[in-house]
Amino acid sequence: MKNHPLTFTRIITARQRALIYSISLISTLFLTFYAQLVCPFLESLPFREQFRNLLLVFIFQIILREILFHYVSANLEASAISGRFFRLLIISWIASGLAAMGLHEVLYHNYNPGSMFQTFPWPSDVPWHSQLKLISGYWFLGAGLLSQLELTIAERFISSYVKKNRTVFSIFSEHIPLRITWGNFFYTFVPSISLLIIVIRYAFQDHIIPLGVTLEVAYIGIIFIGTAIAAAVLYGKMLREDTLQLIDAIEKIGKGDFSVHIWPSRQDELGRVTGGINEMAKGLMLRERIKESFGHFVSPEIAEKFVEQYTKGKDMRGHGERKMAAVLMCDIRNFSGITNKMNPSDVAVMLNNYFDHMVKAIQKNGGIVDKFIGDAVMAVFGLMDDKAGPCLQAVNAAIDMRKALRTSNEKSRLMQCPPLDNGIGIHYGEVIASYLGSSERLEFTVIGATVNMAARLESKARKPYPPIIFSRPVAEAVKNDFGVASLGEEELKGVGKQVLYTVKTRKIKKSASQGMQR
């Protein structure tokens, strides 16, 4: 099915467009009365005839607008949709003024009510000032003022369409300060110019007002217009500075900078928006600090996911998932004997130093620290759907943990603490990942037979066995990356007889180019 371009006839319904066109119809009636009052030539025409002429122009304007609204794209991603609609309105009003002037030329080319109307050489019998009054009515009144009103009404319909169809503007190219400045300019400039034209007509055409009065009115009018424009420009500039400050703050928050604070320099709606942005930034900063603090107690990945879901009001206890994961259990050997006679503060310092090295090795390889159980640590690999195999990650973590143990012991020696040794067990299988606990206190963890199996393997990872032991599923998964050695079949408490494996050597894979050289 061919995608039709988005046009204004699709955005604004026929009934809604009819409401907009009614403004032009009312203006047609107004221009008829006005022309009859201020123009001797147009006054000589019957009212019905003049209204019929302008009604033809009104029909021309509707047809022109329908063509423009149907064929001109209103793509929300291309440009400012309101600005594009406004330009089409201006075009229709300017074209209507030219059409009105042309229609009178055609109809009254040979009209000759008397020489009193000819005040300037003109190619037809229609006085030039009558044509000027017609076109100024459409250009100043229509394009200058009424188009602003039509745009305001149309924007309500455009907004309704956007909300109903959940359409998002991808480009924000409209400027509120510029819109207000231009609005103030037209609503001040057009009426003032119209009054000046009336005064000038009374002075030079009808000779009712003396020239001095005309100059005085013109002088005051120009001063008023200049003052109004200057005030509109200054207010627009101030408003633009304030809106740019708000936009800058929003962009910073969007990039993760929650230290934003805007000084509320206004007491209007923008001032309330400023206060709202400040409160939002404070709330987001607090949320990040909670997430960061929470990440010290659980894995940062789990903390982020929990905060995101919990803030949506979800009961986290009801969301368990079955996952295939590798579980790593690590325990310190003879910890009670080592720490029995140590100062409690020294034990805490030594243990924190040890865990700091172990956790870094786990996280380096994509693991999540599930919990600390006294001097033991439990880690899970594969919960976050990592691309690397969870078994390979777990074995690499175990090797790095053994290396990190030596670094930890060197630091403990400097602190005059005894060295530590540990054993690591790894198993791969199905686990249930969930938030467990009461409504007052929750803990994210994984449970299942896989966890029990990893704990049993860890209990065997002591002399005379090597410090790293894993099960057959793990051995099958990493045998192409490591030299795997079987330790024979052993009885595991609550599990039965199982074949134990350990890592012997890390295999070095030759590249394709090396193989070709050989």
List the helices and strands and how they pair.
Elements: H1 8-11, H2 14-38, H3 40-43, H4 47-71, H5 81-107, H6 128-165, H7 176-204, H8 211-254, H9 269-294, H10 300-310, E1 321-332, H11 335-339, H12 344-364, E2 368-373, E3 376-381, H13 390-414, E4 422-437, E5 442-447, H14 449-460, E6 468-470, H15 472-478, E7 482-492, E8 496-506, H16 512-517
Parallel strand pairs: 4-6
Antiparallel strand pairs: 1-3, 1-4, 2-3, 4-5, 7-8
CATH level-3 fold name of the largest domain: Alpha-Beta Plaits
Number of discrete domains: 4
Measured by DSSP, the beta-strand proportion falls in 5-15%
From the 3D coordinates, which CATH architecture of the largest domain would you assign? 2-Layer Sandwich
Oligomer: single chain
Radius of gyration: 41 Å
| CATH H-tier superfamily of the largest domain | Nucleotide cyclase, GGDEF domain
Structural class: alpha+beta
* H/I helix tally: 16
Q: What does the main sheet amount to? A: 6 strands, mixed
Helix share bin: 55-70%
What characteristic shape results from the CA principal axes? elongated
Q: Spans of 5+ residues with little confidence (pLDDT < 50)?
A: 113-123, 508-518
The secondary-structure element order is: HHHHHHHHHHEHHEEHEEHEHEEH
DSSP strand count: 8
Average per-residue pLDDT, rounded, comes to 79
Instruction: Give the terminus-to-terminus CA distance.
Output: 59 Å
Question: What is the CATH C level class of the largest domain, in words?
Answer: Alpha Beta
